[in-house]
Amino acid sequence: MKLTRILPMVFGVAVLVAAVAAGVVFFHDITPPLVSVRLDAPAVSRDREIVVDLADEGSGLKSVRIVAVQEQSRAILTEKSLDGARKAEVVAKIGDAPFRDGPIVLEITAHDASMSILGSGGKRVVEQQLTLDTKKPVINLESQFHNVIRGGSGLAVYTVDEDLSRSGMQVGEQFFPGYRLPDGRWACLFAFPWSMQVSDFRPVLLAVDKAGNTRERPIPFHPIDKQFRHDNINLSDGFLNDKMQQFDQDFPGLSSKLEVFLKVNNEMRRANLARMRELGLASAPQILWKETFLRTEGKPMAGFADHRSYIYNGQKVDEQTHTGVDIANLAASPVPAANPGRVVLAEFFGIYGNTVVIDHGIGLMTLYSHLSQISVQAGDSVTRGQVIGNTGATGMAGGDHLHYEVFVSGQSVSPFEWWDPSWIRNNFTGKLAGQ
Ligand SMILES: [Zn+2]
After folding, report:
1. What is the C-alpha to C-alpha distance for residues 275 and 378, in angstroms, rounded to an integer?
2. What's the gap in Å between 324 CA and the centre of ligand 1?
3. Which residues touch 422 (CB under 8 Å, ≥6 apart)?
4. pLDDT at residue 58 in the model
5. Which residues are CB-neighbours of 45 under 8 A, at least 6 positions away?
6. pLDDT at position 145
7. CATH class of the domain comprising 139-224
8. Measured in angstroms, how far is the CA atom of residue 406 from the centroid of ligand 1?
9. Helix, strand or coil for residue 71?
10. Of 47, 210, 318, 401, whose CB neighbour count within 10 A is largest?
11. Per-residue pLDDT tens for 91-116?
12. Environment class of residue 256 by beta-carbon count within 10 Å: exposed (0-12), middle (13-18) or buried (19+)?
């Protein structure tokens, strides 16, 4: 046979052998592990947890190694055996690896548990570009004095030298988010919760950058203590029989109306307040009002943060705090929106009965409850003074009145400050104007 005929044949066989060999490898590596890095921003601090999701549906996962590389330096961040798991979540941190701020490449090498005659199982290498950022954001507090009354509100205005993922005031266990204003400054409405003692009130401003570096800056403040009233509420069988009908289906199987009352006054109250907290954290990022909050006309009844003991047949059966104020007028009096905003709740709302909640932006909300009628819907924009409903006695109300409440990021605060133009000037608009 001529060489010109043999060569193509040899070549053909060689291609065939190579294809078979590749086929073996291919067969065994048909599903190398899937690797994905969970990151909301490519910048990381040294402590930022970098979560890597791994999966291998075929033979399962054998091992993973995460190495960080910056120029000539390499550091193994984590190395783990995964024992054939189908899925795994591995967390790595830059920690004290000897890198400086700047670009870093993360090399993630994952092996599955498959074997082949050529020795290696399925393997995948994924590279992820990151930026190491170890600098904490710098907070420049612009607002000067923060005189905060127990049960009341305060405003901090500040600037920060970089983009943030989160900012706001930590007060005990509670976090009050800050909002970025159109001019680039930040404003944080916070509260001195009525339930907190003066000695426990230490507001700390937080700023967390995109990499996760957190700055904590205590603010200068002056707490003003306030004592609240105490009140006894007598529960008559007439009241319980009449009012608890509304809640019978919420708590079926209870033998007495008093038991239903105790469930409503505790569990349902807690659920309603949890919902207010949720709504408060989803507030509009703009300030939607300018003027003093309108007060519905009528006679003041129960006050803000009155401590209440509930008496049944001469026995104390429960205790709660009345957050908000009660205002009584003629039955079914029209109720005006205290300021412009967006209706975020308009429904029968547990202990509050028929209720409207208006969001005024940056966490500030007003609540109108025990209404006989609701005239707006969730999603509506309302103007100052617009009638949103009529007073009534729905929910846990002994008689026709308006229960009015103000919330700052879900924390009930004294409504009196928001009715007082000089308080608003000194503590809100003045601080925004830089005075
Ligand atoms: Zn009330």
Report:
1. 15
2. 6
3. none
4. 84
5. 94, 132, 133, 134, 209, 211, 212, 213
6. 85
7. mainly beta
8. 12
9. coil
10. 401
11. 999 999 999 999 999 999 999 888 75
12. exposed
Ligand 1 midpoint to CA 196 (Å)? 21
For residue 394, the CA-to-ligand 1 centroid distance in Å is 11
User: Residue 106 pairs with which residues in a beta bridge?
Assistant: 68, 128
302 Cα: distance to centroid of ligand 1 (angstroms): 6
Q: Give the model's pLDDT for residue 255.
A: 87
Q: Detail the DSSP E strand segments found in 330-401.
A: 334-336, 341-348, 354-361, 364-371, 373-374, 381-382, 387-390
CA 327 to centroid of ligand 1, rounded, Å? 8
| Centroid of ligand 1 to alpha carbon of 243 (angstroms) | 15
CA 111 / ligand 1 centre spacing (Å): 63
Residue entry with tokens 């170890």: 134
Q: Which two tokens stand for residue 166?
A: 């989160």
User: What are 303's two structure tokens?
Assistant: 């006050």
Alpha carbon of 173 to ligand 1 centroid (Å): 26
Name which of 55, 64, 18 is nearest 33 in CA terms: 55
Contact by Cβ (8 Å): 150, 222? no
Q: In which residue ranges of the chain is pLDDT below 70?
A: 1-30, 116-121, 435
Does domain 230-414 fall under CATH 3.40.228.10? My reply is no
User: Where in the chain is CATH 2.60.40.10?
Assistant: 32-132, 139-224
Distance 322 CA to ligand 1 centre (A): 6
- Three-state DSSP at 227 gives coil
Its CATH architecture, for the domain 32-132, is: Sandwich (2.60)
* Parts of the chain belonging to CATH 2.70.70.10: 230-414
Q: Provide the whole-model pTM.
A: 0.85
Helix, strand, or coil (residue 400):
coil
Report the separation in Å between the CA atom of 304 and the middle of ligand 1, taken as the mean of its atom positions.
9
In angstroms, what is the span from residue 306 Cα to ligand 1's centroid? 10
Do the Cβ atoms of 104 and 131 come closer than 8 Å?
yes
| Rounded distance from Cα 259 to ligand 1 centre (Å) | 21
What is the distance in A from the centroid of ligand 1 to the CA of 311?
17
CA of 396 to the centre of ligand 1 (A): 9
pLDDT score recorded for residue 288: 98
Distance from Cα 371 to the centre of ligand 1, integer Å: 12
Query: Dihedral (C-alpha) 199, 203, 208, 212: value to the nearest 10 degrees?
Result: 0
**Ligand 1 mean position, distance from CA 404 (Å):** 7
Centre of ligand 1 to C-alpha 414, Å, is 13
